[in-house]
Amino acid sequence: MKEENPQQSKRKFFELGIKFGLLATAGTVIASKAMESEPSSEMVELMSTDGHLIKVPASEVKEHSLKPKDYNPREGFPGKKFVMVVDLAKCKNALRCQNACNKGHYITGENAWLKVYKMQESEETAPYFMPTQCQHCDKPPCVKVCPVDATFKRKDGIVLIDNERCIGCRFCMAACPYSIRVFNWSEPKQDKTLLKTEEYTPDFCGQPSVKGTVDKCDFCPHQIVKGELPFCVKACPNDVFAFGDMYEDAVTNGSGETFKLSKLLKDRAGHRLMEGLGTEPSVFYLPPVDRIQDLEKGLENYNEFESVHKDA
After folding, report:
1. Are the beta carbons of 175 and 144 closer than 8 angstroms?
2. Least packed by Cβ within 10 Å: which of 34, 59, 119, 193?
3. Beta 283-286 vs 82-87: how paired, if at all?
4. Beta partners for 55?
5. CB distance 163 to 190 below 8 Å
6. Predicted confidence band of residue 42 (pLDDT cuts 50, 70, 90)
C-alpha cells in the first residue's frame, strides 16, 4: 500500500474536520461503525482532545454536514468557534495574502480588507511586518453601536456586515479600536463580469461592494463551508497564517500542517491585540522572534505592490 504524504494527510484532516465537523471526545474519534460500509485502505488523521493525531480508515469516518439545511447566515455554523493565528516571525511582506483576499472578494484600490504594516518599536529595535485584519472580537464594540443591526456577531465567532442594511453612518468605524474597516466613498472599480450571480447573503463574497457602505474581513465563511481555508491562509507562501476551530483546539496553515492551538499559543507566547480593552479578539499573534524574513526584500515587495495597485 502506498503511504500517504504527511502533508496530504494533514490537509485532509482539516478538510474533513471543518467541512464535516469531526469531533474528538475522551481521546477517541467519532466514527461510523456501520457494518455495511465497505472497507477502505485510505487513512485520514483526526485530532483527539489531548492533541494527538490519530489515524483512522476513511470509511469509518462519520460525515456531519457543517452547513445544516436550516443554515442561517446570521447564526453561523453550529458548534464552531473560528480563530486565526498570525506568526509575525514568518512574515516577509510578500503581500500574497492581501492580493488573494482582494481577488477573492473583488476588492480594488485602497479598500483592502487585509493590510500589512511595517512595525518598529524604536530606532534601536529590529523592524518586522504585521498583517492586520478584522479581529472578529467576542465582545465587538462595532456591533453595539450599529443603529440598524447591519454589523452582527454570529455564534461561531465571525463578525459580519450586512451591506443591504448598512446606512453608511460609520459608527462602527469609529467604535473599532483596530481601524480595520473601510468605507466605500465612491462606486467600487470592480469588473462586474467576474462577479457571481447568486442571491446576496451577508456571508457570501460574490457580490460587488456598495457605495456608501462599510466593508471588512469576513473570515471567508464561503470558503469554510466548502472545507477550504480562507484566501489569505492558502495564499501565504510562508505559512504566516493558521486557521481553525477553538473548540477542536486545532489550527491549520496553508501547507496543511495542523497544530494544537492551546499548545502553540503557550509555547510561542501568543497574544491578542489590545487585550486590555476587553474586546476578546479571535485573532492571535505569535511574536516576531527568530525572524526568517529578509526585511529589505520585503520592503521591495511592498513598494512594488503599492506602485502597481496604487491607481487600481
Report:
1. yes
2. 193
3. parallel
4. 45
5. no
6. confident
Q: What is the pLDDT of residues 285-303, one digit of tens each?
A: 999 987 655 555 555 655 6
Decide: 189 and 312 in contact? Cβ < 8 Å: yes
DSSP for the chain, please give it. -PPPPHHHHHHHHHHHHHHH---EETTEE-B---TTSPP---EEEEE-TTS-EEEEEGGGBPP--SS-TT--TTT-STT--EEEEEETTT-----HHHHHHHHHHT--TT--SSEEEEE-SSTTS--EEEEE-----SS-HHHHH-TTS-EEE-TTS-EEE-TTT--S--HHHHH-TT---EE--S-----TTSS--SPP-TT---S---TT-EE-----HHHHTTT---HHHHH-TT--EEEEETTTTEEEETT--EEEHHHHHHHTT-B-TTGGGS---SEEEE---S----HHHHHHHHHHHHHHHTT-
Q: Has residue 3 got a pLDDT over 90?
A: no
- Average pLDDT of span 7-25: 43
Q: Cβ distance 128 to 91 under 8 Å?
A: yes
Tell me: the pLDDT tens digits for 78-120? 899 999 999 999 999 999 999 999 988 888 777 899 999 999 8
Cα(312)–Cα(303) distance, rounded to whole angstroms? Answer: 15
Report the predicted TM-score, pTM, of the whole model to 2 decimal places.
0.75
pLDDT of 72 over the 70 cut = yes
Is the predicted pLDDT of residue 172 greater than 60, yes or no? yes
Amino acid in the structure at residue 236: C
Which residue's entry shows cell 511592498? Answer: 302
Distance, first Cα to last Cα, the chain: 51
Amino acid, res. 292: I
Q: Which three cell numbers stand for residue 21?
A: 465537523
